[in-house]
Amino acid sequence: MTTPALSVKNLSKIYSENGINAFSDLSFSVKRGEFVSIIGPSRCGKSTLFDILAGVTDQTSGTIEIHEKIATQRKGKFGYMLQNPLLLPWRTVLQNVILGLDILRVSKSECINKAKSVLKKFGLLEFANLYPDSLSGGMKQRVALIRTVLFQKDFLLLDEPFGALDALTRLNCQMWLQDILKKINPTVLFITHDVREAIFLSDTIYVLSPSPGKIIKKFEIEIPRPRQKKYLTSQNAIKLEQEILSILFKEKNL
Fold first, then answer.
1. Given this model, what pLDDT does residue 153 score?
2. What are the φ/ψ torsions at residue 3 (nearest 5 degrees)?
3. How far apart are CA 146 and CA 156, in angstroms?
4. Antiparallel, parallel or unpaired: β 204-208 and 35-39
5. Contact (CB, 8 A) for 69 and 88
């Protein structure tokens, strides 16, 4: 039996200042290299879960294990990317990409060499000296994702990274993301409100209830990754999308 890379056990979060219960008794495990999507209504605790995993805030109860060892100190163990790319406008693409390595106090020369290597691998080296205000929305997201990968590539937390993009740009970014994952094979947790996006990218999908969020359904997708665009219009994908949407609408609107 494959040992999980990440295990969340009976995790709960109650905000002490207002008593709001973000989620309750969450338990799931993630295999190494697995892509797991989390879908649920707004304010069901999805982003709070990511904040806890990344060590930004603490859980009220429950444990988090990394490779079967309880991980109380998690800062720096997860690359974390939000919907907003948060690129610094006064720094070039190259300078933005090495920001995480700067925080880790990697030497300047090593930072630049690593960044250039990754930018070249993923077709972005020609943009290295541009500033964010000259980039498209999709390009900004790609730069932010590269920065996240450089900071920590074993575990990636991606919180609606393509949510603000138009449909065509979003699909192109999804295809590009698949290419990245094929080359570096990280373990990924992904938040999205787009059911079709989750189906296209994921090995496993967890559907959460309204607050306090609880896992109400797990879906496993047995089509190998990376997937082609035509999978989105297959009967299996359409049927799965309808099933997930019906569950979500029974609970509450997204």
1. 66
2. -75, 140
3. 11
4. parallel
5. no
- Bridge partners, residue 125, by sequence: none
Q: What share of the chain in percent tops pLDDT 70?
A: 96
Other Cβ atoms closer than 10 A to 228 = 11
Q: Quote the pLDDT of residue 117.
A: 85
The reply to whether omega before 212 is within 30° of 0 (cis) is yes
Count of positions (residues) in the chain: 254
Task: Tell me: pLDDT of 7 over 90.
Answer: yes
Q: Would you state the structure tokens that stand for residue 26, as one six-digit string?
A: 């969450």
Cβ 60 vs Cβ 81: under 8 Å: no
The distance between the two most distant Cα atoms of the chain, rounded to a whole number of Å, is: 54
How much is the average pLDDT of 67-75? 88
Q: Quick one: DSSP state of residue 226? A: S
pTM, full prediction: 0.90
According to DSSP, residue 18 is labeled T
Q: What is the DSSP string of 63-125?
A: EEEETTEE-S--TTSSEEE-SS----TTS-HHHHHTHHHHHTT--HHHHHHHHHHHHHHTT-G
Q: What torsion, rounded to 10 degrees, do the Cα atoms 148, 42, 172, 223 define?
A: 90
For the sheet containing 187-191, what is the strand order? 79-81, 155-159, 187-191, 35-39, 204-208, 215-220
CA nearest 109: which of 122, 94, 123, 124?
94
For position 253, what pLDDT does the model report? 47
